[in-house]
Amino acid sequence: MPNLRCKQTMKKPRKTPESLRSLRWYGPDDLRSFGHRSRTKQMGLHRDEFVGKPVIGIINPWNELNTCHTHFPQRVQDVKRGIYEVGGFPVELPAMSLGEQLMKPTAMMYRNFLAMEVEELLRSYPIDGAVLMGGCDKTTPGVLMGAISMNLPCIYVPGGAMLRGHWRGKTLGSGTDVWKYWDDRRSGKLDEKSWFEIEDGIARSPGTCMTMGTAATMMSIAEALGMSLPGASSIPAVDSNHNRMASLSGQRVVDLVWEDVKPTDILTEQAFENAIMVLMAIGGSTNGIIHLTALARRVGVGLDLESFDRISQGIPLLANIKPSGSYVMEDFYYAGGLRALMQQLKERLHLEALTINGRTVRENLDGAEVFNPDVIRLFDNPVKQAGGTAVLHGSLAPNGAVIKPTAAEERLWKHRGPALVFKDIRDLKARVDSEDLDVTADSVLVLQHAGPIGAPGMPEWGQLPVPKKLLDQGIRDIVRISDARMSGTSYGACILHVAPEAALGGPLALVRDGDLIELDVEGRRLDLLVPEAELEERRTQWQPPKAKAHRGYAALYTQHVNQAHEGCDFDFLLGTPGETPEPDIF
């Protein structure tokens, strides 16, 4: 990757050792600071190592059940090496690890937990700046949200994608090919031996999903926002360039402390508009909309669903990456990575936006090239003319819904059909493959009570399985609607994030079997074709579901989470970055 780390970001007075935040703990000649220094020395350190030097917290969301982050212990050492090289003092701060694969009911429910933990770790300890490590889907927004609210100098280190999968000469992509071959397995076209061979070959190294799922999307978005070194998001997790990037990030964060550059200096309205354009051009996960909205609200930038549609107009799909294309992230890196893709968007991007390495977007893109124009398409030869995500409104989604049309069969972009309703995920699992299911290719599957409150946590249940009855007929895609999310690696005509959700009595809760539903992707409409008088009658009969959580974090979550179009953040976590008072030290 290019060494683009060293340049004064903006004209601020440089900090002096006496003005470091950590000196409030370590500097005074009093009893409390004696305790702080002596207990730090208890760890075998001497005073010159930590007094008067930037203390850098390395936020590490690692554990042995987060399969994407297995290389993070080594990357912490790489980051530390960079910090030491330029005179900083690194300290590792483990944080809750959100492993998408094994964490239930969903890592999404714990994103806000991680954000709170990051904010409070940085606030409560003598930290001057931070390196934010992340990769697996919800860790990236989680660490960024917390760091934004604390508003200390920080830099994001993306975990990187795993190597491509292999099976019998074919490239396998995380998630995307799982759903494809699982449908083959369900319909009797794939034997057990082949299924287990795929299981052995699809995840071959440390790193995140190597398709353009939520992990790759959010790492790319973090770079597009300017919060990581240019080129960092595209490097595979096991490439030695990834080690070097981590070390350079450690060096840069020390500069950021001396320059007093904070997230609020980087995360401007222009930065978020750049990120939205990149989200569309990479065919990014629909989850990116929720997370970008939450990040923007943390920093005080007004971002709503209409903003996504407005800003993305005319942005084509340029990344030929699964699930919307043919390749995987390793190919994307070799083709030039995110810098090369952003180069194709130069006429639309805010090129003077500042980034964390002290340079503008324009400077960071200088010299970027596309080395494989089939993987990263040129602007006038896109994968598809329309970008990755469409925002829908209508009588079924007054506050909005989203669909990824590039991952759906185009014949379904405009569709009218009868609803087939599943009351919750258990109802869906029990009936979807029944031979008695009254379903046709025109049916619209509807899943209720899968949203932030109804599930709770808004799990990735939105890629409702195509009923086996239809798979046996060769049908692989039908319209599916829910207040859930779906994995960014998923595909199909899946309408997601319907708001208000069913658990709050939104129109989704009122849908009954046989109701006609109309989808018009190009018209950005999603409508329930039931007379208003009938809907009013149904509203009078509707009863809110019983609360599923009565204690602990789950209860806190359901009481305070907002809706998908608002970013699914907690109402009590919104506010001006850095407004919470510093801790008293007595």
Describe the secondary structure blueprint for this structure:
Blueprint: H1 23-26, H2 31-41, H3 47-50, E1 55-60, H4 72-85, E2 89-94, H5 111-124, E3 129-134, H6 139-150, E4 154-158, E5 165-167, E6 170-172, H7 176-186, H8 192-201, H9 214-225, H10 240-259, H11 263-266, H12 269-281, H13 287-299, H14 305-312, H15 329-334, H16 337-343, H17 361-365, E7 390-394, E8 397-403, E9 414-422, H18 425-431, E10 444-447, H19 468-471, E11 479-482, E12 494-496, E13 516-520, E14 525-528, H20 532-541, H21 552-560
Helix pairs in contact: 4-10, 5-6, 6-13, 9-12, 9-13, 12-13
CATH architecture of the largest domain: 3-Layer(aba) Sandwich
Largest sheet entry: 8 strands, mixed
Strand content: 5-15%
Radius of gyration: 24 Å
Q: On the 0-100 scale, what is the average pLDDT?
A: 95
What's the number of domains? 3
CATH topology tier name of the largest domain: Rossmann fold
How many β-strand runs? 14
The CATH class of the largest domain is identified as: Alpha Beta
Please identify the structural class as seen in this structure.
alpha/beta
Low-confidence stretches are none
What is the assigned CATH homologous superfamily of the largest domain?
Response regulator
How many helical stretches?
A: 21
Q: Quick one: overall form? A: globular
Percent helix: 25-40%
- The span between the termini is 46 Å
Strand order of the largest sheet: 7-8-12-11-10-9-13-14
